[in-house]
Amino acid sequence: MGSIIEITKSAPLSGSVRISGAKNSAVAIIPATVLAGGPCVLENVPPLTDVYNQCRILSYLGAKVEWLDATTVSIDTTALRNETPPDRLAGKLRASYYLMGALLGRFGLSRIGLPGGCKIGPRPIDQHLKGFQALGCKCDINDGYVLLEGNGLHSGHVYFDLVSVGATINVMLAAAGVEGTTTIENAAREPEIIDLANFLNKIGVTVKGAGTGTLRITGNRDRGWSEHSIIPDRIEAGTFMIAATATAGDVVVKGVITRHLESVTAKLRETGVTIEEGEDWLRVSGPARGKAVDVKTLPYPGFPTDLQQPLTAYLTRCAGTSVITENIFENRFRYVDELKRMGANIKVEGRTAIVEGVEELRGATVQASDLRASSALIIAGLAARGRTRVRGISYLKRGYHDFIGKLRQLGAEIDLV
Ligand code: EPZ
User: Fold this and answer.
1) How many CA atoms lie within 13 A of 7 on its CB side?
2) How many angstroms separate the first and last alpha carbons of the chain?
3) Which residue has its alpha carbon closest to ligand 1 atom 5?
4) Is the pTM for the entire model greater than 0.90?
5) In the CATH scheme, what is the homologous superfamily, with its name and number, of domain 5-20+232-416?
6) Across the chain, what does the average pLDDT equal?
7) Boundaries of every domain in the chain
8) Least confident window among 113-117, 264-268, 308-312
9) What is the pLDDT of residue 117?
């Protein structure tokens, strides 16, 4: 199997696609099993390289990890050792830094390699450390490692300077192992935070306020274990909604929590897309050519930054001028140069991209620079005249399970070469 994704202009996508479990929930709940007192069974886990690598880190530390089927994994961390995961493993995914909070919460000490920045910005961890310090933890960074020393952790109160999904999750994990009630203000409100809170509540931690900006976590030393089903991936779902729209298709996206997609549904409707909402499905039918819109990425429940790239790929052909403002990451427009190679008319000024809709894109060979850029370039290729080749299949597999297979099921002309 090749490593280049080849797409030719496809007929309007049609049919239905079932959404997998949420990557950004799974990569947080897998390390949360470190806080459990016994074997946890996680269901609806997306079979992704980021998920497998997060499990490999736990195995390395002595956890018993057993896949019961393609999307169900049993993780028993009873015999976990508090060691530093090797860089070859931790360096494969940013979410390995959740081991900071998990190991601190369980053992009162942790040492993890600094996470890499990536192509969407420097991605500092100052807010994570601020939260750990509020619990009485001493934090040092030297020769590329973060050393956290509890020395008698206590519950605390942290007010984040900005909304951070990762910092919220990391401090929840640490606080889960600390007696007393820790308060986190200006917390992230993403559905993945609520999913983690639900898991922690099942193993004997008390988390209140998940989904609001104020979290209260009452940890305890004597925690149980449980089973848990991961919520559906709203970003995968939104990506397929946009792919359908970009090809003027008619697609049912199944197995979703529709309220997690409210900002996406609203924005696509503004471009002229018809969206019918069911119990756990959305039917998306796109117009021959959408209308330009303005969009600003914001923390949940605002428009998600992870769909900024796929949406922009669609907006390149919408009639009129669209203004896209990326408020979350400093540098999440690198893929725009690749879209311009396909004939898109986009001007980037700092955190803003101004898109003049063109009638048609033309296929080209393009390079994905991150996970969501890869899906964005594929979406552009579905609607572009001729053939598009996208390099960067490894990014795609990190965040989308069987993306190519699911698109082919909907009629896309896409293959690996
Ligand atoms: C999570 O990243 C997601 N990753 C990202 O998804 C997502 O784009 C992001 O949240 C925003 O929703 C996972 O869940 C594994 P942040 P995270 O901390 O936690 C700044 C994908 O494609 N910041 O909410 O790293 C930071 O630089 C990925 O699935 C600080 O300044 O995001 C950014 O500008 C991409 N200091 C902003 O906050 C800190 O200590 C939001 O980052 C932490 C963050």
Assistant:
1) 36
2) 7
3) 306
4) yes
5) Enolpyruvate transferase domain (3.65.10.10)
6) 96
7) 5-20+232-416, 23-229
8) 113-117
9) 57
